[in-house]
Specification:
By secondary structure, this protein is α/β, with parallel strands linked by helices. Helix content is about 35%, strand content about 20%. Bound molecules: zinc ion (ZN).
Length: about 425
């Protein structure tokens, strides 16, 4: 298969014409979704496709109900061009977050609106237990919608990384058990009969921030993501950076204290052993407060509980130098911080990090903050997951097997109910 020579050269991806066609459809859809209502000429410019190709694809997408004609733009002489917009009822994507203790499911239409959401606590998080849950949750979410239910264009699945690292304990409170040698894309694809995009939670959250959140205007940013552990999403020139094995951004397992506190990965002194929700709940457990959930954390923070206050101080002290390190490494427009930490707690944590250590981010003409808040809440990762099948159009991976999984033409996608 010919390698893509440079980013944006969509026409050279793969030798399979069907895959190209399907890919180009998604590119056009994504351009309209981002710019809409928009005419064929402008689509062609942004999609790097010929106007003839765009005309054909647009016609198909209108027939399939994914695009609608949005009138004509009055400009200049002659017949003004027809404008196209996405049809919010034309299709939707599902976002699934598989976390250690819950599965969250969102249905988001192609206009970006959340149409249904569900969260189910789980006792076991191995593939055998989780796969049937995913299928049932998507069906239950679809059942919440008034008919006609938009077609399912793809499913984004996120789970905490890292994936397949030899010697790193993958069974721990912050990761999932039994997924090490399990082909998640194929396994989930089989039960859902839809194209699957798999991503680690932090990268998916960065995609979500870029498409709908705090990073809408940022092309280069890093997202510090609080799941149970601590992850990092890296966005370079508007594309998520995944690394060679999808494991880029495992900032949680960066050593910050030699011989320090034990981490769930088996090392001592990882950043995650200090700056994570898991670290906070462990401190609370040591103080006799067990099984704290999200609302419980919000309450303890409002009550200014001393364990929470002490954690903020400690986590900020370990996290602040890492912010400066990321700035020095990536020179981002900003660092976004978000995830499953309650907003008030996140606010206090970022305050406690000030003043941030010196880095290349300190510029005389700087107008924006170095550290900005992203989305928070328990659904952040699932929102990012739902955005994955759409962003994928713009950032195809070169992995043949995964590409073949994803690049089934949309019209063949049916949900096996
Ligand atoms: Zn670790």
């Amino acid at each position: 298969m010919p390698r893509k020579s440079k980013a944006g050269a969509q026409s050279t991806i793969g030798s399979n014409p069907e895959r190209n066609r399907s890919h180009n459809r998604r590119v056009v859809l994504d351009v309209v979704r981002q710019l809409g209502p928009v005419g064929r000429m402008e689509i062609s410019r942004h999609a790097h496709l010929s106007t003839q190709a765009v005309s054909n694809i647009v016609e198909e997408l209108v027939e399939d109900g994914l695009l609608i004609k949005a009138g004509r733009l009055r400009a200049g002489r002659g017949l003004p061009p027809i404008q196209f917009a996405v049809n919010p009822n034309g299709g939707m994507t599902a976002g699934i977050e598989i976390a250690a203790d819950h599965v969250s499911t969102l249905l988001v239409d192609i206009g970006g609106r959340v149409r249904a959401q569900r969260t189910l606590p789980i006792q076991r998080n191995d593939p055998g237990a989780v796969l049937p849950v995913i299928r049932a949750e998507i069906e239950l979410a679809q059942a919440q919608l008034k008919p006609p239910v938009p077609q399912l264009l793809g499913v984004g699945v996120v789970m905490p990384g890292p994936f397949n690292v030899e010697g790193m304990t993958s069974v721990g409170p912050t990761t999932l058990s039994g997924w090490l040698d399990f082909d998640a894309v194929a396994g989930i694809g089989r039960i859902l009969d839809a194209p699957i995009t798999l991503e680690n939670d932090a990268t998916a959250a960065a995609v979500g921030e870029r498409l709908h959140g705090a990073a809408k205007d940022l092309k280069n940013f890093c997202l510090i993501f609080f799941g149970q552990g601590l992850g990092l999403g890296i966005m370079i020139d508007g594309r998520p950076y995944r690394g060679a094995n999808g494991n880029a951004g495992e900032i949680g397992h960066v050593l910050v204290e030699k011989g320090g506190r034990r981490c769930s990965c088996g090392q001592h002194g990882c950043l995650e052993a200090y700056a994570s929700i898991h670290a906070l709940t462990e401190r609370l457990a040591a103080a006799g407060i067990h099984g704290v959930d999200y609302p419980g954390l919000e309450q303890l923070h409002r009550d200014r509980h001393p364990v929470v206050e002490a954690w903020i101080k400690e986590a900020a002290a370990y996290l602040a130098p890492q912010i400066a390190m990321l700035e020095n490494l990536f020179d981002p427009e900003a660092i976004v911080i978000g995830g499953a930490l309650p907003p008030g707690l996140l606010e206090n944590l970022t305050q406690a990090m000030q003043p941030l250590p010196l880095s290349v981010a300190r510029r005389r003409n700087r107008s924006e903050a170095r550290l900005i808040h992203g989305r928070t809440g328990r659904l952040t990762a699932a929102l990012g997951a739902a955005a994955l099948p759409l962003l994928d159009a713009m950032t195809p991976r070169l992995d043949t097997a995964q590409a073949a999984q994803r690049e089934q033409p949309n019209e063949e996608i049916t949900f096996a109910g």
